[in-house]
């Protein structure tokens, strides 16, 4: 069987691969402390589960409307309009998708085309380090990934100048993820506003077709005084912003697979209709009995979200405090999501107590797992400065954080 060129060059998700490896080791009885998972360790709040169970028992077991049940879409539109202050969003601008991951995939499929023979491919700007699935999804849609590099020293923040320097007439898409996976940074409202101005300028002067995919899936998990501002709330660029979100992170619903996207105004409605057409030929819709649970999550579960957010904030403080005190690790304070992303390159060129030469984040992560049973994600697939970093998720108990940081300290102490 010959596989397509498209899939032959497609890597598997490295975040999910590390998660699977840590689980397999644990299932075999190893005392693995996993800092790999990009998912909350909490269970889904009960009212959300009850809503789905009731809907299932009430017979919501048939095909649902392709873009999602109208009530759930209206609830998302209402949230984006009031909470996020995004203008021009109605239920018709919203498509509910199989996780935020599929919302991004469908949007990129609808916005990018493979280059015609002899022509240049459309360019997608990606501030890096960036979540592992963006670049493969851009390439699957025929786009060229153009990295906008950021670094630990400057808090992993892309400036307007960085952005403007990367824009060309071929730029079609910018992916903007705040709070960020893997960097743990939440852009300040002033930084978002400055980027909105730069985007307006770039669209006027250089890239008239520029569309921003604003991935705000971690918007509710912010701390250390951070404030989330939606890029889509800035009126001059609102119609070129597609906001992507989902329930996986804030509501501890990773296994439910609920994501969404929404544009604004006439261009946003056109994109939503295109995404729905593509969804109609691929996944159809979510399971019908999930939709009532979406409304319950958005409308009735703010206290649950706040309790989980507060727990993440306490964990962020602990893990960052421990890592900052370790020799050779450079790590900005996390202000959102549930990741720290230390630069470990000061240790490259050393040999671990178990005899592994550490030249890359992958060497570092593998030796740490082999020798001290601590699982983290090597930074290479996050691109850019990720090639010097490892990602640790603190979606785990404070006890585990302390135990894991003791092991990381012992690992570093053993490097020669
Ligand atoms: N965006 C980012 C930045 C993420 O970290 C994730 C986590 N997998 C997603 C999107 C997609 O999450 P999901 O498909 O579970 O909604
Ligand atoms: N987003 C999470 C992570 O980065 C979940 C796994 C994935 O979908 O990549 O670990």
Descriptive report:
The protein is α/β, with parallel strands linked by helices and 416 residues long. It has two domains: 5-43 and 303-409, Alpha-Beta Complex (Aspartate Aminotransferase, domain 1), CATH 3.90.1150.10; 62-300, Aspartate Aminotransferase, domain 2 (3-Layer(aba) Sandwich), CATH 3.40.640. It has 13 helices and 14 strands. The chain has helices spanning 5-8, 14-27, 46-57, 70-82, 99-111, 134-140, 160-166, 189-205, 265-280, 291-300, 302-324, 361-372, 398-413, and strands spanning 33-34, 94-98, 123-128, 144-149, 171-177, 211-215, 241-246, 258-262, 339-340, 350-351, 357-358, 374-375, 377-378, 390-393. The strands form four sheets. Strands 2-8-7-6-5-3-4 form a seven-stranded mixed β-sheet, with helices on both faces. The protein has a three-stranded antiparallel β-sheet with strand order 9-14-13. It has a two-stranded parallel ribbon with strand order 1-12. Helix 7 runs parallel beside helix 8 (189-205). The longest helix is centred in the last third of the chain and has 23 residues, at 302-324. The mean pLDDT is 96.
Compact overview of the structure:
The protein is an alpha/beta fold and 416 residues long.
Number of helices: 13
Question: N-to-C terminal Cα separation, in Å?
Answer: 48 Å
For the biggest β-sheet, the strand order reads 2-8-7-6-5-3-4
What is the helix/strand order? HHEHHEHEHEHEHEEEHHHEEEHEEEH
CATH top-level class of the largest domain: Alpha Beta
Distinct small-molecule ligands in the complex? 4'-deoxy-4'-aminopyridoxal-5'-phosphate, glutamic acid
Number of strands: 14
> Averaging pLDDT over every residue, what do you get?
96
The CATH homologous superfamily name of the largest domain equals: Type I PLP-dependent aspartate aminotransferase-like (Major domain)
Strand content: 5-15%
Rg on CA atoms, Å: 21 Å
């Amino acid at each position: 069987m010959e596989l397509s060129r498209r899939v032959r060059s497609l890597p598997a998700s490295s975040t999910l691969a590390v998660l699977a490896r840590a689980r397999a080791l644990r299932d075999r009885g190893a005392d693995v402390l996993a800092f790999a998972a990009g998912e909350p360790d909490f269970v889904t709040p009960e009212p959300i589960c009850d809503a789905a169970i009731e809907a299932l028992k009430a017979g919501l077991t048939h095909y649902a409307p392709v873009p999602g049940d109208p009530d759930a879409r209206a609830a998302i539109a209402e949230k984006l309009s009031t909470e996020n202050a995004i203008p021009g969003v109605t239920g018709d601008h919203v498509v509910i998708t199989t996780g935020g991951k599929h919302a991004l995939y469908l949007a990129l499929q609808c916005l990018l085309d493979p280059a015609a023979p002899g022509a240049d491919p459309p360019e997608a700007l990606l501030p890096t380090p960036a979540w592992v699935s963006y670049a493969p999804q851009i390439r699957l849609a025929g786009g060229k990934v153009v990295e906008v590099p950021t670094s630990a020293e400057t808090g992993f923040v892309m400036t307007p100048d960085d952005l403007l320097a990367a824009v060309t007439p071929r730029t079609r898409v910018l992916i903007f993820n705040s709070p960020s996976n893997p960097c743990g940074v939440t852009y300040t409202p002033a930084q978002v506003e400055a980027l909105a101005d730069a985007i307006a300028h770039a669209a006027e002067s250089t890239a008239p077709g520029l569309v921003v995919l604003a991935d705000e899936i971690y918007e509710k998990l912010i701390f250390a005084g951070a404030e989330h501002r939606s890029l889509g709330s800035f009126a001059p660029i609102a119609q070129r912003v597609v906001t992507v979100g989902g329930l996986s992170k804030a509501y501890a619903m990773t296994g439910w697979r609920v994501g969404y996207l929404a544009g604004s105004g006439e261009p946003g409605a056109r994109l939503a209709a295109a995404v729905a057409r593509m969804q109609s030929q691929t996944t159809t819709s979510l399971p019908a009995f999930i939709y009532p649970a979406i409304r319950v999550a958005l409308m009735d579960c703010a206290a649950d979200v706040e309790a989980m957010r507060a727990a993440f904030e306490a964990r962020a403080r602990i893990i960052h405090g421990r890592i900052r005190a370790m020799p050779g690790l450079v790590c900005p304070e996390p202000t959102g999501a549930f990741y720290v992303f230390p630069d470990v390159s000061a240790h490259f060129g050393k040999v671990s107590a178990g005899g592994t030469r550490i030249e890359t984040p992958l060497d570092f992560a593998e030796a740490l797992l082999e020798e001290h049973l601590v699982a983290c994600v090597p930074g290479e697939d996050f691109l850019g400065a990720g090639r010097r970093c490892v990602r640790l998720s603190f979606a785990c108990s404070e006890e585990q954080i302390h135990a894991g940081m003791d092991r990381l300290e012992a690992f570093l102490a053993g490097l020669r």
